[in-house]
Amino acid sequence: MSEPYRLDNYTPDESIGYLLKRAGGQLSTTVDRALAEFDMTHAQLGIFLRLLHGHADTAADLAREMSIDTGAMTRALDRLEEKAFIQRLRSHADRRMVQVSLTDKGRALADQMTLVAINALNHHLRDFTPEEVAQFKMFLRRMIGNT
């Protein structure tokens, strides 16, 4: 199979990397606008949803899951804790470990926060058929798997 990019056909504005970053930026802006009423950001929503769906429960796990450094994760968790969306508690099993979870306030807003993500995605995918969305996700998973 020939490689999709070569010196004779590559332009930065047609780069998959550029297009993914641009689409991601627009999606992030849409989510940020919708989250303003909740005093939350798109980046904070990612943490919130990972906690909600049980994908991680420590700062280190969240940082790995989201591919960000632990210092940035700690700062993000500080902000979410100040807003009472999350809580950090020492593990009873291992006192060195700090568990992160949603607070009652966070759980109460879970459906509204999830709807913000759903509505933003649906807005940006409005001209796609369900089959195209499935294919797009399959392509992205394949790309991720090529690392």
TrEMBL record:
SMART domains, alphabetized: HTH_MARR (SM00347)
SUPFAM superfamilies noted in UniProt: Winged helix' DNA-binding domain
Tree of life domain: Bacteria
Domain HTH marR-type: 13-145
InterPro entries: HTH_MarR-typ, WH-like_DNA-bd_sf, WH_DNA-bd_sf
Gene3D superfamilies named in the record: Winged helix-like DNA-binding domain superfamily/Winged helix DNA-binding domain
Membrane-crossing segments per the record: none
The entry's keywords: DNA-binding, Transcription, Transcription regulation
PANTHER family in alphabetical order: TRANSCRIPTIONAL REGULATOR, MARR (PTHR42756), TRANSCRIPTIONAL REPRESSOR OF EMRAB OPERON (PTHR42756:SF1)
Full protein name: Transcriptional regulator, MarR family
Organism: Noviherbaspirillum suwonense
